[in-house]
UniProtKB/TrEMBL annotation:
Any single Gene Ontology cellular-component annotation: plasma membrane
UniProt source species: Papaver nudicaule
Domain (Cation-transporting P-type ATPase C-terminal): residue spans on this chain: 391-564
GO molecular function, one term: P-type calcium transporter activity
Name this polypeptide is given: Cation-transporting P-type ATPase C-terminal domain-containing protein
Domain of life: Eukaryota
Keywords recorded for this protein, A-Z: Magnesium, Membrane, Metal-binding, Transmembrane, Transmembrane helix
PANTHER family according to UniProt: CALCIUM-TRANSPORTING ATPASE 12, PLASMA MEMBRANE-TYPE-LIKE, CATION TRANSPORTING ATPASE
Top-level taxonomy: Eukaryota, Viridiplantae, Streptophyta, Embryophyta, Tracheophyta
Amino acid sequence: MTSLVINKATLNQMKVEIFCVGDEIISENSAYVISPEIAEMICDGVGALVLESDASSSPMEDPLLIPWAESNFGIDMELLKQSRSVVIRLPFGSDGRKSGSLLRKNADDGKTLHLHWGGSAETILEMCSEYYNTDGIKNVMDEGRRNGFHQFITDMDNQGLRSMAFAYSTIIEDAADDGAYEKVMIPELRENNLILLFILGLKYPCCPEERRNAVDALRNTGVSIKLVSAESLEVVKPIAVEYGIFRPDHPGSDAIVLEGEEFRNFTESERMEKVERISVMGSASPSDKLLLVQSLRKKGQVVAVMGTRTAELPSLREADVGIFMGTNSSEMAKESCDIFIQNGNFASIVDVLIIGKSNYQNIRKYLQLELTTNVSGILITFVTTISLGDTPITPFQLFLVNLTVGTLGALALLITEPPTQDVLEMRPVNQTQHIVSMSMRRNIFVQVCYQGVVLLVFQFIEAQDFLGLMDSKVKKAMIFNGFVLCLVFNQFNTREPGKKNVFKRIIGSRWFLVSVGAPIILELLLMEFAERVTGFPRLNILQWLACFLFAIMSWPIDYAAKYIWSCLANRPIVLPSCLSSIGFSGLGKMQWLARILFAIVLWPIDYAVKCISSFFADNSIGISSYLSSSGPFKSPSQLPTPTMNV
C-alpha cells in the first residue's frame, strides 16, 4: 500500500477487558449469559450514546462499544433508530464524566420514558441506589455493596483499566406534565433513583509510544498516512501532531490540513492536485472519506482504509485493502473488509504491512524462478531445434523440471519463507508498477544468458575426448543434468533478488534446504537408475563434477552482476572520448548500460542466424569452426555462402 486512511478511533481505540453485571464479573473471553431484559437495556444504553448525536458530543469518536454490543448482544443500530426516539439528550460535559439520554420506545404506550446514563464508573455509581443482577432482578445497593463496587473500580484503575458504568431508570410521563421533566426530573434522579446496569473495564491495546513508533515505521517505509475524522480540526490536528502524522515544522513539508466541506467543494482538478498532500481532514462525513479514497485511487495510489464502525463500510469496500479494527465486530463488517485486526491494536498495522510485503516479495521470487526456468529452457530448445533439428531438452522434460523444481520452489518461497523486518526497506508499489521489477529482469537476463551460453557450448563443442561430449547421448545427458542443477542452485540467488548475500538466514530455512536437496536426490536417481525411461547414459564422476561446477558458478555470476549493477547505479561513468563519436555521449548510466548489453546480446543472435542458415544448407556448424572462420568480428565478405541442395 502507498496510502493509509485512518480515523481518530484507530489511534485511540480501547477494548472491553472486564464486564460486570451485579455480582457477576465476566472476563473478555467468557460467554455473556444474562437475561434478555438486561441485554435489551444494555443495547439501549450503549446505543443512546450515539443516537442523534454529533461527534463533538462524545469523548470517543466511533464508539468502541457499538461493535462490542453488536457481537455480544446483537444490537442493531438501524433498528434502534427506527424503534426509539430521543426526547432529551444531555451530552458529555467538558469534563467528559457522564452523558444522559431520555428515550421513548415506539412500541410502548407513549407514557413510559427510559432514562439512560453512561460515563465514569465512580460518577455513575454515586447516582445509583439499586443494581441489576444477571437475571434482571433489582437489588438494593446497601453500604456494603456500594463499597464493594468502589473497591472493584479501584482495582481496575490499579490495573491500568479505564472504568465506565451505565445506569437506567423508567419514568412515567404523567408525572412530568407540561414538559416539566426537562427541567426537574433528571436532577432529582441523579442521587438515589437510578439502577446500576453494568460496569466495564476498558484498556488501550498499546501505549502511545507504540502508536508513535508504528506511525514512524509506516512513514519510513514510504506509506502516506491520512487522518480523517468527524471531529473538528481543533480536536484532530493536535492528535495528528502528537503522533507525527502531521509535521508542520518538518523541512520541505507541504502537507495540507482542511475541513471535509472544503475538500468536498473542490473542483475535480483541484481535488486531484491536492489529494496526495492531504494529511489531516476534520469535520469529515463518511461520504468525504469515500471521496478521498476514490481520488487517491484515481492517482494510482494503493489505498488501505482502517475503520472501526459500520458507517465506514463504503470506504472499506472501495479501498484496495479494507482493514477493520475492533475487539468485536458484526458479521457485515467482517465480510466487507479484507483484514480484521481483532485486538484493536493500531501498532498491529506494522505487522500487517510486513506480512503483506513479505507475501508480495515471495511471489516475485517465485516468478523470477519460474521465468528463469522457462525462458532458459525455451531458449536452449529453440536454438538447438532450429540448428540441429533435435533438442537435448524435450517438452516433457521441461514439464518435469517445472513439476519438481517449481513445486518445491513454491513450497520454499511462497509458503514457508517467514516474514522479516527487512521487507520494510522495500518502497511501496503503486498500481502502475510492474510486478517484475528491474532487479528481477536483471537477474533473469544474467542467468538465462549464462545457462544458455554454457549449455549451448556443450551442445556445439567439437573438441576431441572432452568429457565424452563426442557421444551425442552423453552430450544430451550433461545438458539436461546441468540445466536442472543450475536451476536448483539458482534458488539461492532467487531468495535475495536485490542483495548480494544470498545465504542470509539460510540455516534456519529448513524447507528451503529441502527444496534444494530433494531435486538433487531425484536427479541423481533419475540419471543413474532410469536409463530406460530417459534414454540417457550414466554419467561418470568427472561429468557429474562438471555439471555441479556449472551450477555452482551461477552464484559468483549473480554476485558479479549485482556488484557491477550497484557500481553503475551509484557512481558516475566516465566514458572515453572515442565513444563520443559513436553515439555514447550524453547518455544516462542506464541508457549506456542498455546499449552495451544490447551489443552483447547481438552476438548470440548473430550466431543463431548463422546456425539457421547452416541448417537450411543441411550442414551443421560448430563453435570451433565458427570462431575460426565466421566469428562475429569477421566482415560479411569473409563468411561462407550457404548453399541449398535440391
